[in-house]
């Protein structure tokens, strides 16, 4: 780069920023509106929000660790208690989702073991295979043949029929 610069081509910016001079003596109404907004609306809302945040810091709420109370089973509901029916149905749906996730986790563990062990998978992953067989059999016994539209009542009837068949087979 040459030492002699062309000062006309590359002008140096001014060292001080010029201050704009007022052209009128009337104050700007925007400044008053901003100040009024700040004191009337923004300050109370900010105060309340900071107060709530201080209160919430004392009690941490983790939504992903939410625990629902166990509700009575459908067989324990009094006849005609529709609220109990609804709660039992919601509990059954949650239980079904949990059981589906358990089966999926065990299946993923078995797949990871098979991937890790390679040709020795039948020897080294026998526990995982047995566990998957048990879990899928239990899931099939409870929820199998219910279909997508299965509910707590049909599941309870299926369980009742299975228990009656087991009693007949035992005799």
TrEMBL record:
Compartments where located: Mitochondrion inner membrane
Top-level taxon of origin: Eukaryota
Signal peptide: none
Keyword Electron transport set for record: yes
Keywords in alphabetical order: Electron transport, Membrane, Mitochondrion, Mitochondrion inner membrane, Respiratory chain, Transport
PANTHER family for the chain: NADH DEHYDROGENASE [UBIQUINONE] 1 BETA SUBCOMPLEX SUBUNIT 10, NADH-UBIQUINONE OXIDOREDUCTASE PDSW SUBUNIT
Homology family: Belongs to the complex I NDUFB10 subunit family.
Protein name: NADH dehydrogenase [ubiquinone] 1 beta subcomplex subunit 10
Lineage: Eukaryota, Metazoa, Chordata, Craniata, Vertebrata
């Amino acid at each position: 780069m040459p030492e002699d610069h062309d000062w006309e081509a590359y002008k140096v910016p001014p060292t001080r920023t010029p201050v704009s001079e007022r052209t009128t003596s009337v104050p700007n109404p925007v400044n008053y509106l901003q100040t009024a907004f700040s004191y009337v609306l923004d300050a109370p809302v900010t105060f309340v929000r900071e107060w709530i945040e201080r209160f919430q810091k004392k009690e941490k709420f983790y939504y992903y660790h939410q625990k629902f109370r166990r509700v009575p089973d459908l067989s324990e509901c009094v006849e005609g208690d529709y609220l109990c029916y609804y709660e039992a149905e919601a509990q059954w749906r949650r239980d079904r989702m949990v059981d589906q996730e358990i089966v999926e986790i065990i299946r993923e563990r078995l797949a990871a073991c098979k991937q890790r062990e390679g040709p020795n998978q039948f020897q080294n992953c026998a526990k995982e295979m047995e566990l998957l067989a048990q879990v899928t059999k239990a899931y099939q016994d409870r929820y199998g043949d219910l279909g997508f539209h299965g509910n707590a009542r049909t599941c309870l009837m299926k369980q009742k029929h299975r228990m009656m068949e087991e009693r007949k087979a035992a005799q």
